[in-house]
């Protein structure tokens, strides 16, 4: 397998070739899903230039899985249960990542009437960013894979579709990071239902496939305040008012920076409401 891995061309495959239920991609190379990142690490593919990560280092990561409202709620719960964080200590924020264009005029925004720095046009997807200890990354990755059903479908798979809602994970170093191995292992512990691909930016929305991004080359851009700690996307998915109020708590603690974007599609909140 090692010889075959090294011999395969590095071009990222087309979306159709990513759909195989027992295949994954690292650096554009196909290998069995369970061993892809582990084998890459064993071969030392690109790891020599990466700094070592201490277990107590706090790292910035992000996860994308369809609409970011529901995803943020689940990671807020994870911060509270895994790290025992209080309200003002929460770091889970909704925003955008994964596009090659980066920011436009210094910002990335939700759809708005003025088409100002629209995240979709910039190639970004909706994500949730966290700051967590390196030692806890595997536990948070497991929470991410719990969002998918047994076939690798996200909760709104047949509703929100397209580049803006694709599955992606951002970690320091991307597919070359030791954390990529933990990501795959977490997926295996949660049923081994996902494929993986090295994210190149502006990646397509492929069912049951997660694009692994480097947070340095594809950083996170914070979303608008009205998107933070929002009720879920599904009908009747209303969270407690105490959850909605976290936006004010986190902002008061200085952990919710301004996005610089219009306040909603019509200037007064989402859809003008």
Automatic annotation (TrEMBL):
Keywords: Oxidoreductase, Signal
Any Pfam family the entry gives: PMSR
Gene3D superfamilies: Peptide methionine sulphoxide reductase MsrA
SUPFAM superfamilies named among the record's database cross-references: Peptide methionine sulfoxide reductase (SSF55068)
InterPro entries per record: Met_Sox_Rdtase_MsrA_dom (IPR002569), Met_Sox_Rdtase_MsrA_sf (IPR036509)
E.C. number: 1.8.4.11
Peptide methionine sulphoxide reductase MsrA domain: residues covered: 61-228
Secretion signal, residue range per the UniProt entry: 1-18
Domain of life: Eukaryota
Any GO MF annotation of the entry: peptide-methionine (S)-S-oxide reductase activity
Similarity remark: Belongs to the MsrA Met sulfoxide reductase family.
Record protein name field: peptide-methionine (S)-S-oxide reductase
